[in-house]
Amino acid sequence: MSRAVRWAPKIPVAMIVRLYQADADLLHDDELVDDVGWRLLARCQDVLLVTESKVICPECGTTFDVPWIGQPEERVSTCPKCAWSITSGEYHRTFEHRDLNGAGAPEAFADYASRFPRLTTYAEKMMAIDRLVHAVHKTGGVAARNLVEGRARVVLETLDALASGARQA
Fold first, then answer.
1. Does residue 7 or residue 139 have the better pLDDT?
2. Which stretch of 28-32, 67-71, 126-130, 164-168 has the lowest confidence by average pLDDT?
3. C-alpha span between 42 and 105 (Å, rounded)
4. Is residue 132 scored above 90 in pLDDT?
5. Which residues contact 116 (CB under 8 A, 6 or more apart)?
6. Is 27 exposed, middle or buried (0-12, 13-18, 19+ CB in 10 A)?
7. Residue 77 β-bridge partners
8. How far apart are CA 81 and CA 94, in angstroms?
């Protein structure tokens, strides 16, 4: 039986709030910055894959194209290494209603995905996270929905409050 395509989950907005509040209190929580940072990385990578119409083969790990926009649902894309396959319709259903098409801020997602794995210090990681959060926030919440779990209005209000320096309850 073939394995299914899996996508990284969105990050809870409460985690981002906790990280920002700890940072504002000068509590450099290395564990939390790593947890938030790596979760954001996994989500950004998956958003980029979907945006670029690609998939990572769940059998062998090869990345390959899976055309789906405008294609017949039954069009098959096959992994060039192991012959695992998926139809355009099956591929689309793997991410349908999961906010993985990152048209709102692809440059920010790509920049974060290329930089974060190389960062070593708390300050570098926090700056990268902040740059990403700012980039998705300034889209008016469109791109924030790609990364952050929660109702769009609540997420945007929370990001607005963080940007203003207001403490969250």
1. 7
2. 164-168
3. 16
4. yes
5. 37, 38, 40, 41, 125, 128
6. exposed
7. 86
8. 21
